[in-house]
Design brief:
The complex is a heterodimer. Chain A is built from no helices and 11 strands. By secondary structure, chain A is mostly beta strands. In chain A, strands 2, 4, 5, 9, 10 and 11 form a 6-stranded mixed sheet that branches. In chain A, strands 1-3-8-7-6 form a 5-stranded antiparallel sheet, with no helix packed on it. In chain B, the strands form 2 sheets. In chain B, strands 2, 4, 5, 6, 9, 10 and 11 form a 7-stranded mixed sheet that branches. Chain B has a 4-stranded antiparallel sheet with strand order 1-3-8-7, with no helix packed on it. The model of chain B has no long low-confidence stretch (mean pLDDT 92). Classes of the chains: A mainly beta, B mainly beta. Chains A and B meet through β5, β9 and β10 of A and β5 and β10 of B.
Chain lengths: 108, 114
């Protein structure tokens, strides 16, 4: 079946890089996504990667995909306090399946 | 059109009452999704529509839950005989049926069942 797993919590110092990891099960997923959710706000798409790509970079965000191991990661360079949020990994068949989310805490 | 709109944003009800949530998707989007999110969890898929057709329903969606999208535009999610376990954030999202499948989410409707 479809399942997405993430570590639940990550704490980093402001200015450091953050790496959030995710594993998924559905090898037929054509796209994989990272969504961000801030307190009291809706889910916001951060970035996505097509399944035939290994890496995608978008400003401070780098997505790495290891399709063989079904492992996805999101790297945030120069993490800021405004990056504090919950980050969800998601895979798509005909609907999005989300992980439980990784809460990123950024401290001075 | 600024995005996906949901109302009410908050609903407090007593156990056993019926509640209805409404979602207005982005106007050109033909797909509409309902998800449920509880504290500390990711969104769980409930159901989705393509135009007015309901194409998939999760096993999470008991017979007390019904969703409609009668004209292929807005959708309603009704919960009958609410239970305390129904307390959650109900999220609506819309998309175009295309390769990237990007979903645009509303801010959600929070249900509290007393």
């Amino acid at each position: 079946g479809e399942d997405v797993e993430q570590s639940l919590f990550l704490s980093v110092r402001e200015g450091d890089s953050s790496v959030i990891n995710c594993t998924y099960t559905d090898s037929s997923s054509t796209y994989l996504y990272w969504y961000k959710q801030e307190p009291g706000a809706g889910l916001q798409l951060l970035t996505y990667i097509f399944s035939n790509m290994d890496m995608k970079q978008d400003q401070r965000l780098t997505v790495l995909l290891n399709k063989k191991d079904k492992h996805l990661s999101l790297r945030i360079a120069d993490t800021q306090t405004g990056d504090s949020a919950i980050y969800f990994c998601a895979e798509i068949s005909n609907k999005l399946i989300f992980g439980a989310g990784t809460r990123l805490a950024v401290h001075p | 059109d600024t995005g996906v709109s949901q109302n009410p944003r908050h609903k407090i009800t007593k156990r056993g009452q019926n509640v209805t949530f409404r979602c207005d998707p982005i106007s050109e989007h033909n797909r509409l999704y309902w998800y449920r999110q509880t504290l500390g969890q990711g969104p769980e898929f409930l159901t989705y529509f393509q135009n007015e057709a309901q194409l998939e329903k999760s096993r999470l969606l008991s017979d007390r839950f019904s969703a409609e999208r009668p004209k292929g535009s807005f959708s309603t999610l009704e919960i009958q005989r609410t239970e305390q376990g129904d307390s959650a954030m109900y999220l609506c999202a819309s998309s175009l049926a295309r390769d990237t499948g990007e979903l645009f989410f509303g801010e959600g409707s929070r249900l509290t069942v007393l």
